Amino acid sequence: MVVLEGIDLDALNYVVKAPYNGTGAQGGDPMTENLNIWYEFLLLGSCPKKVGTFAHLALDHGHGRIFLPMVLLGLLLTFSHTAGPYIGNLANFGFKDVLAQPSVGSDRIPDLLFAIYQGMFSAITVALATGAVAERGRMLPCVVFMFVWATVIYDPIACWTWNPSGWSNKMGGLDFAGGTPVHIASGAAALAYSMMLGKRRGHGTHELNYRPHNVTHIVIGTVFLWVGWFGFNAGSALSANLRAVMAAFVTNLAACRKWSTVGFCSGVVAGLVAITPGSGYVPSWAAVPYGILGAGFANYATKLKFLIVGNILTAFFARADIAHLDNIQTIEGGWLNQHWIQLAYQLADSFAGGTYSFVGTCCILFILNLIPGLQLRATEDAEILGIDDAEIGEFAYDYVELTREVLNDADAEGEAASHYSADVNPFDPREKNSIPLMDTRIYAGTSAQQQQQPHAR
């Protein structure tokens, strides 16, 4: 017996590494053998590394706003040890007794670690849903919506999908890393929010020119998402094992590509979204149809609103041996295992989550809009001025303010200057902060000088 600081090391639950015996072309049958015993990486710890996920979520406004309700209510409503088929209870309110007890997700990690990990899912889901607010929604009601939606909509869907007591989980629905609770729920909520807000000012006219304002930012954001997705998908194995490796592999392979930069980034995200629910259930080759079909359907999503491609494909390609690569979970598989009823399970879970999210979001927004001070839609003047300036008094780029002041001759009367950015001391619009300014009308084809001085003949 080896004792270190009062701990009997021989009594710990080790996965004993063994020399590879060369059995079979694939190294063995995961349904009858623990294939994890051959590899050293399994001794490095059970907590998946998610540096990329945290780096991405550090930029996410929803993270700070959602972690508090997750601490107070989210864990107990979603992953309570005594939860019902739809929702948890108040046994762990305010993280009471949440520390070292094995979590409902896996007995290999404690409640506290599992809560932090699942808090990231909640934060990113709310961020996806509230993207619909851009350009025409007010900030304050959006913040209130984040708190309410995470508690009333996200938590029940996550409970019935991932909690062992949930009705979908018991039924046999397969969702490895967020198909219904994250993507379908947020997509339905974003659609509802958009419809409740109404069309943007100038919709269908030349006033709205849908062009990316910064392609470099799109690329950087895609990189953060792509790396972070490994944390979500591979990390959902809740241990460092071959199932986590397979999830990481299919996640990377499913990310589609296109030659243009923006198209490349859009294809990457479409593939990542599609593979998420099946990443811990499908073989490596299945990532290819996930990526192709996911990106193909997403290309027409503006007409079809939202789709459940990833969840449906999981019914076709899920395999029992892939799910058992962790030597723990046992499923009946999908159509590749002749388990035909799996498609019905996936459809039931997907439509239930999407319908609940859409209807619930509409109800929440309708009530919020009736409360004084929480009107959802920004005024027309605020839309013209710009939501950044009207709501929070900031600009992403200084040239937005400068261009506005030059074009409207703000130096003369200051009538077009913004409420937040107006300077008490007037300045020469030809120079600000020692930077010479240019009259942007020259880019319209005719400069101000040309307008004043006719061409010599």
Helix-strand layout with pairing:
Elements: E1 3-4, E2 7-8, H1 51-57, H2 61-78, H3 111-129, H4 139-162, H5 167-171, H6 179-197, H7 215-233, H8 242-254, H9 261-275, H10 287-298, H11 301-304, H12 309-317, H13 320-323, H14 342-370, H15 380-385, H16 387-392, H17 398-407, E3 431-432, E4 435-436, H18 448-452
Antiparallel strand pairs: 1-2, 3-4
Helix pairs in contact: 1-7, 2-3, 2-4, 3-4, 3-6, 4-6, 4-14, 6-14, 7-8, 7-9, 8-9, 8-10, 9-10, 12-14
Poorly predicted segments: 40-62, 410-441, 446-452
Please count the beta strands (DSSP E, at least 2 residues each): 4
What is the CATH topology of the largest domain?
Ammonium transporter fold
For the record, the count of structural domains works out to: 3
Q: Which percent range fits the helix content? A: 40-55%
Shape: globular
Q: In what order do the strands lie side by side in the largest sheet?
A: 1-2
The portion of residues forming beta strands comes to: under 5%
Largest sheet data? 2 strands, antiparallel
Order of helices and strands: EEHHHHHHHHHHHHHHHHHEEH
Q: What integer value in Å does the Rg equal?
A: 26 Å
Give the CATH architecture of the largest domain.
Orthogonal Bundle
What is the distance, rounded to the nearest whole angstrom, between the alpha carbons of the first and last residues? 103 Å
Q: Can you tell me the CATH superfamily of the largest domain? A: Ammonium transporter AmtB like domains
Structural class given helices, strands, pairing?
Answer: mainly alpha
CATH level-1 class of the largest domain: Mainly Alpha
**Continuous helix count:** 18
**Average pLDDT level:** 75
